[in-house]
Structures are given as structure tokens and as C-alpha cells.
Q: What sequence folds into this?
């Protein structure tokens, strides 16, 4: 059954599509909110909008193909006009983000870094005063070899890392073949510094801290859709 929260997400996702212009190369995010973005984009493509999408996960790529959204890659487009994606936490004043609970954080950050603009779509429950206020862990993608050493190094940064599992008996593996350590840091007072520290840790591929990347945040609230910029 569709919940009111689902409808709020869909409303914000469709509003974010107002940033899309004919002829753009669009980064397509991953997750429950990004699903609605791709859904709405598919409807606009069916109505004649001409865009090319670069997906951040195989799951998103499959959805886009099912909606006849033309897809491409970095081999053809090294620069992306606009990426629309979701987030797990958004810091109100700074628009800093925690992303990656959907498991696609590496591809999401590659696409975001190549984009002229990053638009984030969330419902109001994802907004926080400081990252970590809701207890959301920071996902950290690590190489499989020696992941235990990477986890120990992250512990020294103050994390409580947990190896993510797809099922009880099987470790979650990203599309890029990495493991994910979900790192509970609590409230993060200096996310920019923490992002750099995590990035310098041997064995770490990328973290779910997206600092200073979001230009707009489209927020679904009970009173309608708001835009933070």
C-alpha cells in the first residue's frame, strides 16, 4: 500500500524534475526517492523530453531501460549537466549529506562529482541540524582484502563499524565489488574533516559523506514542497 510518506517523496521527486531541461545529460540516483525521480522522468521522456541518463546503479539502470530512458556512460559524457538523487540525512544549514544506505555510494559520488549541479530530494524526516543526529551510520566502501584492518583504522577515528550483510549468511557486495562498513559516529561536529580522514584510510574506496556538493535540496513536507538552496 502506498503510504503518505511515499506520496510526499513522489511529490518532491516530480518537483525536482523542474530542473531538467531538454537536451541535458542527467545523473540518475539510487534509492527509494530516486525511484520516483526516474519514474517521473520516464513519463516526461514519453511525452517528448530528450535527455540522456547516466545511472548510479544497476538497479536504476534497469528501471530506466524499462521506461525507455536513453542511457549512456562516462565514455561518451565526461560531464553531467544535472544529477538528481536522494539522501539519508541532510544538514539543514550546510546541505551536507550522508548517502549510501542503498549501497551505491561510490557510483553516486563519481556521478555527483562530474555534475554541474546536484539536486537532492528528501522528505522532511531526513533533515537534521547536524549530521548523525538521527543515528544514521556513514557507509564506507572498502576493498574486500583486509577489510578487518580498514575497520580497525576507522575505529581509531571514532567509528563503530559494522560489516553490511545482504542476508544473515552473505556479505553485501556493491556493484563495484566492494564491501560496505556502516560506521556509527554519532553526531558529527566536523564532517568536512571526517570525510578527509576517512578518505585517507588505507583500504577505503569512498565514504557516504557528501560535503559541499548539493546545490539544491527539494524537501517534501506535510505542507507541500520546499527548496533549500
A:
Amino acid at each position: 500500500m502506498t503510504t503518505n510518506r511515499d506520496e510526499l517523496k513522489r511529490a518532491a521527486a516530480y518537483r525536482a524534475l523542474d530542473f531538467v531541461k531538454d537536451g541535458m545529460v542527467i545523473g540518475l540516483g539510487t534509492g527509494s526517492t530516486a525511484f520516483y525521480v526516474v519514474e517521473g522522468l520516464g513519463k516526461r521522456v514519453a511525452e517528448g523530453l530528450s535527455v540522456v541518463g547516466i545511472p548510479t546503479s544497476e538497479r536504476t539502470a534497469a528501471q530506466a531501460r524499462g521506461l525507455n530512458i536513453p542511457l549512456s556512460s562516462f565514455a561518451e559524457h565526461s560531464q553531467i549537466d544535472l544529477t538528481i538523487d536522494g539522501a539519508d540525512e541532510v544538514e539543514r544549514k550546510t546541505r551536507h549529506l550522508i548517502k549510501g544506505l542503498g549501497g551505491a555510494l561510490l557510483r553516486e559520488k563519481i556521478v555527483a562529482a562530474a555534475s554541474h549541479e546536484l539536486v537532492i530530494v528528501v522528505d522532511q524526516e531526513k533533515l537534521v541540524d547536524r549530521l548523525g543526529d538521527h543515528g544514521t551510520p556513514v557507509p564506507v566502501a572498502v576493498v574486500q582484502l583486509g577489510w578487518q584492518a580498514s575497520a580497525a583504522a576507522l575505529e581509531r577515528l571514532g567509528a563503530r563499524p559494522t560489516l553490511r550483510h545482504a542476508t544473515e549468511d552473505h556479505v553485501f557486495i556493491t556493484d563495484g565489488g566492494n564491501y560496505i562498513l556502516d560506521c556509527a559516529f554519532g553526531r558529527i561536529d566536523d564532517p568536512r574533516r571526517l570525510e578527509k580522514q576517512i578518505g585517507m584510510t588505507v583500504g577505503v574506496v569512498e565514504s557516504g559523506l557528501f560535503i559541499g556538493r548539493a546545490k539544491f535540496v527539494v524537501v517534501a513536507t506535510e505542507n507541500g514542497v520546499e527548496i533549500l538552496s
In short: The first strand starts at residue 25 and ends at 28. The chain has a mean pLDDT of 95.
